[in-house]
Write a structure and sequence with these properties.
By secondary structure, the chain is α+β, with helices and mostly antiparallel strands. The protein has a single domain, classed as 3-Layer(aba) Sandwich (Aminopeptidase). Helices cover 31% and strands 33% of the residues. The protein has four helices and seven strands; from the N terminus they run βααβββαβαββ. The longest helix is centred in the N-terminal third of the chain and has 18 residues. It starts with a strand and ends with a strand.
């Protein structure tokens, strides 16, 4: 399967990205429950200039994005692989492409936030050499958030 994948760099105007994000939002609404409204405000996708969408047989099957957090740091946002395509290394492809793009743009670090109950995501980021850091920005007082950083 991985031989047939196409990785496209695009923006948040990409309709396939928007469709995947809708699926992600529905998934997170269930996972986050009552806390979901808090997180929604920080996950708006308009004006994202650095978006990756992965295609398999012309179907969008994964996405992710980066946005500037500080002059030397980007935040990884909207990482998603639908359940049917998980376990094939696709999330790793998306993350690597985002890290490479960030490096090309002159950034030195990637940061991100996920929920402590998102065990698969936590394990994935640790396996991808991200280190847990103190919660940043809007997540500072959110006890259920785990924030990560990686020097790229």
């Amino acid at each position: 399967m991985l031989d047939d994948l196409i990785i496209q760099r695009t923006t948040s105007e990409n309709p396939d990205f928007q469709k995947l994000v809708s699926e992600l939002d529905a998934y997170l609404a269930i996972r986050n429950g009552e806390d979901n409204d808090f997180f929604v405000q920080f996950n708006q996708i308009y004006l994202l200039k650095n978006v990756v969408v992965v295609y398999y047989n012309k179907i969008a099957i994964a996405c992710g994005a980066i946005k500037e957090h500080q002059s030397d740091t980007v935040e990884v946002k909207r990482m998603f692989v639908p359940q049917a395509f998980r376990g094939n290394g696709i999330a790793q492809l998306v993350l690597k492409e985002l890290e490479n793009w960030a490096k090309e743009l002159g950034y030195k670090k990637c940061i991100l936030e996920t929920g402590e109950d998102m065990k698969e995501a936590v394990g994935f980021y640790q396996k991808s050499h991200y280190k847990i850091i103190p919660n940043y920005g809007q997540y500072q007082k959110v006890e259920t958030s785990i924030c990560f950083e990686k020097v790229i």
